[in-house]
UniProtKB/TrEMBL annotation:
Keywords: Signal. This is Lipase. Residues 1-18 form the signal peptide. InterPro entries: AB_hydrolase_fold, Lipase_EstA/Esterase_EstB. The keyword Signal applies. GO terms for molecular function: lipase activity.
Length: 370
């Protein structure tokens, strides 16, 4: 079993994707925490065309004028998808003109905890700029690439975030809006970290019970997703979210957080732990209610598990400083059940799995293989 000392030293203050870590700790362990303040301010009119700088194509938000105006007239204004109060990089996508034709299925990007649509200048908030840049270089246009920000991108609030009805309903509506705007029957979805489990729930649809309300997301949209790619997910929770942490930090919560379960059914004497258990132990713990619902482990309440698309792929690293070795009670927590394929990247950190695998992401979407 691998032991990740820096991560456990911060066990009560979780790192960006799932936990809050003080800036002093981040700096000590080599993270870039310098803010890029220029991305926090609006400069002139909305921009949709890629900005060229030193020969590179850089995606620049917010949404195109055409998409922004369409959202306002089509009944989506109240969802505030552009989130301009967070800056121009809080959204991306849209046609340059009304009758622009699409040559590819639209790709929708769903980020993780404390991240955003595009790069905001810190390691934990790099958005999907790198992926969008790569797709643009391969012939995609902004009319075929869509990203929105959920949450306020504040790292010090990362431990408070859950799979809430508010977030799920807003993301579900965003997917519906993109499909309606582009007039397509299918989209592709790439999600990272907490964005993976959020995306899986909005695709599944149905009822959700969070800490304050019960909400209905509607019918499943699994048939409307061609390819679903999940990167660095925690589908079975995180070992760091033990029962003590789950009672203190909402993000680790038992109902709508990343609680992995507290014991192995086959080894009630605690001879195995969350991280040391193997597949042969057949632990079958009772873990986060929402994750069990997504994975079809409590069908009597939340229905059976659904395929999130025609093609499903999972990416992860066993050196991920957030997810750790990826083993949670003997299961790979980043493996999406029913995946058509998966790819394990050696020696990659949590956000590197998003920013440094763009060619592999493109292959998964375009060639439907890994």
């Amino acid at each position: 079993m691998k032991f990740y000392a820096p991560l456990f030293l911060a066990s009560l203050f979780v790192a960006a994707q799932c936990f809050y870590v003080p800036e002093e700790w981040l700096k000590k362990h080599g993270y870039n925490v310098k803010k890029n303040t220029s991305s926090r301010h609006l400069h002139g009119k909305n921009r949709i065309n890629p900005k060229k700088s030193g020969g590179d194509v850089i995606p620049v938000g917010p949404f195109s004028d055409d998409f922004t105006q369409w959202l306002e007239t089509a009944g989506y204004a109240d969802y505030n998808f552009p989130s301009l109060h967070l800056g121009i990089n809080a959204s991306y996508g849209g046609k340059e003109f009304k009758d622009q034709e699409l040559k590819h299925n639209p790709v929708i990007f769903i980020h993780g905890n404390s991240d955003g649509a595009l790069d905001d200048g810190t390691e934990f908030s790099s958005g999907f700029s790198a992926t969008i840049k790569y797709f643009l270089s391969k012939g995609y246009t902004s009319a075929e690439l869509y990203a929105v920000t959920w949450g306020d991108r504040k790292l010090d609030k990362s431990f408070t975030r859950i799979h809430s009805c508010a977030t799920l309903k807003r993301l579900r509506k965003f997917v519906e809006a993109v499909m309606e705007y582009t007039n397509v029957e299918q989209v592709d979805i790439i999600a990272h970290s907490m964005g993976v489990t959020l995306a899986r729930q909005i695709i599944k649809g149905g009822a959700v019970l969070d800490l304050t309300e019960i909400c209905e997301l509607g019918r499943t949209i699994k048939y409307n997703v061609k390819t679903f790619l999940g990167i660095a997910a925690a589908n079975y929770g995180l070992c760091m979210c033990d029962i003590d942490t789950a009672t203190k930090l909402p993000v680790c919560g038992v109902r709508v957080g990343f609680f992995p379960g507290s014991s192995c059914k086959k080894h009630e004497d605690s001879s195995v732990s969350c991280a040391s258990a193997t597949k042969q132990d057949k632990c079958e713990p009772s873990y986060s209610h929402i994750l069990m619902g997504i994975n079809g482990d409590i069908p009597e309440f939340f229905g059976s598990m659904v395929r999130e698309g025609e093609n499903i792929f999972s990416f992860w690293s066993e050196e991920d400083e957030i997810v750790g070795s990826n083993s949670v009670w003997g299961r790979k927590t980043s493996f999406i059940p029913l995946s058509n394929g998966f790819k394990v990247f050696p020696n990659m950190k949590h956000h590197q799995l998003k920013t440094d695998t763009v060619a592999e992401q493109y292959k998964a979407i375009v060639e439907c293989t890994v």
